[in-house]
Amino acid sequence: MKAVVLKAIGQLALEDVPEPQLQKNTDVIVRVTTAAICGSDIHIKHGLVPGVAPGTIMGHEFVGVIEETGSDVTRFEPGDRVAVPAAVWCGICPACRRGEVQYCSNGGVWGGGELFSLKLAGVQTAAVRVPFADVCLTSIPDSVPDEQAVFVGDVFSTGYHAACEGHISVGDTVAIFGCGPIGLAALVSALQFGPRQVIAIDVLPNRLALAKQFGGRPIDASQGQVVEQIQNATGGAGADVVIEAIGNQDAFSDALGSVRRGGTLSVVGLFPGPVDFPLQNLAITGLRLSIGLGNLSRMNQLMSIIESGRVDLSPLVTQTFALDDALEAYDLFENQKEKCIKVLLKP
Predict the structure, then answer these.
(1) Environment class of residue 31 by beta-carbon count within 10 Å: exposed (0-12), middle (13-18) or buried (19+)?
(2) Angstrom distance (rounded) from CA 199 to CA 178
């Protein structure tokens, strides 16, 4: 079967790889129906994520149909449509029992390399072996198409996690730096908590337009004075909750400057390098900071929100390619940001 593979730093290739096989009784084999390209895939391509070696299959966002189940799997059977989290967890280690599944000591991220205890191949291919199936998989209702379900395992879950970690209250002002898929999902998630307004900051017109369509108040960062614009929008107080969903030093600095005293900064952007953090200036502001991987354990609840029609994430999908055209898809996603938001691959 074909797969998108990291050939060398800065170079991807479409190569033949072996079909996956069940290894444990708790595994399933999922035939991939839709996968997606993520910004972190571009980081991996250029060697900015340590521990991912050439030869690794790319990708961590996908949905599909169960093709084969291990003997101990009880919740699923062949033919079931399922959404799979970007990172799997065991359900029994201390972190999982605390509800912090993103820090599972036995888990791993698809194509995540040596950073995680469980080394998993990526998912931009035709079929994937999924461990801990009963714990991690979420059924896809018949009424939910792949083009929405594919967001539940990472984009929607991470965006919702960012909003939860902000502890948004009714009537708050929320500011979101970055209107990529995670930032837009954070915007949609923040609106579930009843804020007064959600300010969305980016430099790309297509992303700002979609943020406005979703109910945000767009600010074009290319015009400068972002902190001043947020201060003006909040009567000089600053935002109650700020979400950083880019992983960029300048955005992080502006995010710090936009939080009101005693407010919360929730960071889900992945930074490719060190970041300056002016701790000496923050003691008097009472800033509350949350940073870390997104908790993906809310997938069932988020799938239900999509099924109800309350949230529609399909506008995030701007292009769909066959897996055979994945290299063209990567070129578009990496180099023509003004033309795309989320790119899907169909094996």
Answers:
(1) middle
(2) 10
Rounded to an integer, the average pLDDT of 79-96 is 97
Contact 58, 40 (CB under 8 A): no
Q: How far apart are CA 262 and CA 16, in angstroms?
A: 54
Contact 258, 34 (CB under 8 A): no
Distance of alpha carbon 328 from the chain centroid: 22
Residues of the chain above pLDDT 70, percent: 100
DSSP category for residue 192: T
Q: How many CB atoms lie within 10 A of CB 338?
A: 9
pTM greater than the 0.85 cutoff: yes
Pairing of strands 317-322, 259-267: unpaired
Q: Is 159 helix (H, G, I), strand (E, B) or coil?
A: helix
Residue of 263, 217, 257 whose CA lies nearest to 241: 263
pLDDT at 158: 97
Amino acid at 166: G
pLDDT, mean of residues 303-319: 97
Report pLDDT digits (tens) over 145-170. Answer: 999 999 999 999 999 999 999 999 99
Q: Going edge to edge, which strands form the sheet with 288-291?
A: 217-220, 197-202, 173-177, 239-244, 259-267, 288-291
Question: Contact 177/247 with Cβ under 8 angstroms?
Answer: no
Q: What pLDDT, on the 0 to 100 scale, is given for residue 286?
A: 87
Beta strands in 51-206 (DSSP E): 61-69, 81-84, 87-88, 108-109, 127-130, 138-139, 173-177, 197-202
User: What letter represents residue 214's amino acid?
Assistant: F
CA distance 45 to 52: 9
